[in-house]
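INFO batch 0412 | record 1 of 1 | parsing
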Amino acid sequence: MTAIRTLSFTLAFYLFSLVLSILMLPLLICPWRWTMAAFRFWANSIFVLLAVFAGVKVELRGREHIPKGAALVAAKHQCMFDVFAQFAWLDDSCWVMRKELMRIPLFNFYAWKVRMIVLDREGGSNALRKLVRDARERLEEAPRPVAIFPEGTRGKPGVAGVYQPGVAGLYRDLELPCYPVATNSGVHWPMPGKNRPTGTIVFEYLPPIPASLKRAEFMRRLEEQVETASNALLSA
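INFO prediction complete | emitting tokens
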């Protein structure tokens, strides 16, 4: 039964996403916030598909800590769902994404339209400087949350990755509070080829880390808060 649910959801997810991405094409000539509104519709629609086909619910905790306007968001990353799920509640968010994602047809157009920040993970110090410069440009265009996965890549539930210097660079140079986000998404949205267990995916926004801390203290607090809260959600 689990395998059937997983297959049914996978087919529904990709079919719906493909159809919607085609229907969204006229938005490329409209204001970028219209595309963000379509992203919110997409995310909420996937929540319905998850519940109907896979028996997986989505729960948001810590609503009082969701930032409005300019802020830095640092989220735990366990699966592809972590990005588009948060379009449902993180208004006008600007995500840092690896450049390889810009090879995905149609998605690359929409990522460009809403001014996502593209990061070359192999670019070293030049890439870090460009990351900060691009983030500053986005904030000058509009006061919106800049969101990043501090580990840089997906990890397994219960396993802490290496927190990368990109998040520290953004925190230092943008001089904004950082909002950590914990999740257990990888439990119910596993890697391709594995069955999708029923249950509840939880995203939990944690109290913000104030701006202007020393780098070592910021990184220590960020990792401690994200990993502790994420591990606590594994039984959800």
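INFO post-check: The mean pLDDT is 92.
INFO record closed
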